[in-house]
Amino acid sequence: MKAKYFNIGVLMALVATLFTACDSDRDDNPVVGPNNAPTEFVLNKPAMSEQYIQLSKDNTVLLTWSQPNYAFPVVTSYQVQVGVVKDGTVKWNEADGQPTYLESSFTSCTANISGEEIAKAICQIDGFATEDDYVDQGFREIAMRIRASIKTTTGAEIEGTSILSNYVTFKRMAAYCMIPSKTCIWVIGNCSGWQEPSAGNADALADWRIWETEIGSKIYKGVVEMPDYSSDALQFRFYTKLTGWDGGNSYGTQVDDAPIDCEFSNGEFKGDALTGKGSWKFAGFPGGKLDITVDMNSNKVTFIIAE
Prior knowledge:
Layout: E1 6-7, E2 31-32, E3 52-54, E4 60-64, E5 77-86, E6 89-92, E7 94-95, E8 98-99, E9 110-114, H1 115-126, E10 140-149, E11 163-174, E12 184-189, E13 209-212, E14 219-226, E15 229-239, E16 250-252, E17 260-262, E18 268-272, E19 274-275, E20 280-285, E21 288-295, E22 300-305
Parallel strand pairs: 3-11, 17-20
Antiparallel strand pairs: 1-2, 4-9, 5-6, 5-10, 7-8, 10-11, 12-13, 12-15, 13-14, 14-21, 15-16, 15-20, 16-19, 18-22, 21-22
């Protein structure tokens, strides 16, 4: 298979240190690819590794790690994988043979990992599908490791940039009943009255939810009845949590809080999406049902005017 290489110019939005104009024309600019992938990446032993830790939705676990040895300063994305240790062997959280990582990701080398997310991962590893299945397993040895990679501004991982850290263990950690269920996202815009995506507005925004197709799929699909904007423009973006305007949970066309004009082609729109406050804007939308698909794995959206 032919290796793919990406000139650092493609990653300008990610690079922490800007190159000068004269350097940009050099033939030896850094590249990212399979032949120069990072080889060193260390997750540090946690200070609480020997203590008794009862997980809850309100506590966190601190992890720190080194920056992978990329050839240049770059913003790196980090994901956390959880495992259960039994007889010296780690059973990692996976789905259909593929690694499953915690929902939260990070861009710094230190993070407070959600106790709720860790407990959810442990329940997945134990195979508990419903609350009736759950059995308290008590304190056990729990492993964690970090996966690092570089992503484009649209969230796509760049080939040849990923690396796994060593794993560390917490000798006495206890989960609780945190059974995964389908999650939803909220359609927030002039269609929903620009109501703040806050917990206090949960009931008012109930009809503006679209749900995961399957638990953990991160693909959201639903049909929403949109108002008539034939003399104006329909505007909206998505929120993954009801934590307010500035909770960092907005998903749209761009980082900046400004709409981008879009058009339907034969009743369909397809485009990119990323974390940010940019809204989709459709001038002259006649109102009616809009079939919405949001794929947070590929950072793509599809909107279809339903009959």
